[in-house]
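Quick one before lunch.
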Amino acid sequence: MERTLLVIKPDGVRRGLVGEVISRIERKGIKIRALKMLLMTRQQAEEFYSVHRGKPFFEELVAFASSGPVVAMVLEGDSVISVVRTLIGPTDGRKAPPGTIRGDFSLSILENIVHASDSPEAFEKEVRVLFSPHEIL
Ligand code: CMP
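Model of the adenosine-3',5'-cyclic-monophosphate complex:
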């Protein structure tokens, strides 16, 4: 069984889409192993998105990610990294197909409702930024 990290970003929480996102995950048959709401500090957001440091949108991304509460989840299932990436759709909400979370709810490349790990290495790094080991079942 594989694990991944899914984060409902501040825009998703502000727009009241927490239940909608969790419902899609559960209906797919993916297990939730940890779940919490938190406000990312600027430092946590910089660490979480450190692969994007130096890109033109980095500052805007860090400010956005720490602009309000997020809901972070550790998910488990067969091939869950690629399955969840398919469920959320491509980064740009304007291009994401209908039926995906971003395709159904976002019109923006920055404010795109959710984040999900894109590899086992990314998961290991991201989960350490947001969870302590005892919080994961
Ligand atoms: P996410 O999947 O969380 O990974 C990195 C995030 O950076 C991405 O979703 C977007 O929120 C943001 N992002 C990526 N590309 C751009 C861009 N060109 N302009 C603004 N934000 C971006």
